[in-house]
Specification:
about 0% strand; about 140 residues; mainly alpha; single chain; 6 helices
Length: about 140
């Protein structure tokens, strides 16, 4: 929690002005790095282990034999990047406004709900078939 407040204070002090001058080219990657680093700190109980993970993340040395770069990973990473950053391009911004903006068709909400339920079911069946437990809250 303190991680988020730290960056909120920094943003209020000076970072928002820097973002306005530099635009999205700097603000989006910096925000992404802050959030991902915060997730690592939140997930790990041991600070030394978390710093080792963060050091490994930003060394960009992923091919030491412990990381399997298979087709599932590549597809999920590309799909995640597309969904995460699509609103940065003008066409993605227009699509977002068309789907979720003030002029969106109300009947399309049912399509979103149905699509969400289908995706949830597919994800749940995929995760339940794995031996690995990816839930970060399993200790609580």
């Amino acid at each position: 929690m303190a991680w988020c407040q730290l960056f909120l204070v920094i943003e209020r002090l000076f970072l928002l002005k820097v973002y306005e001058r530099t635009g999205r080219v700097i603000s989006v990657p910096l925000t992404f790095i802050v959030i991902i680093t915060g997730w690592v700190l939140f997930r790990n109980e041991d600070l030394s282990f978390a710093t080792n993970i963060i050091r490994q993340m930003y060394s960009f040395n992923f091919f030491d034999g412990r990381f399997a770069m298979n087709n599932d990973f590549i597809v999920m990473a590309l799909l995640g990047a597309l969904i995460s950053f699509i609103a940065l391009v003008p066409a993605g911004k227009r699509l977002q406004e068309k789907l979720y903006g003030e002029n969106a068709v109300p009947q399309a909400a049912w399509l979103f709900v149905t699509g969400g339920i289908v995706l949830f079911y597919i994800s749940l069946t995929y995760v339940s078939a794995l031996d690995f437990n990816p839930f970060i809250y399993f200790r609580f």
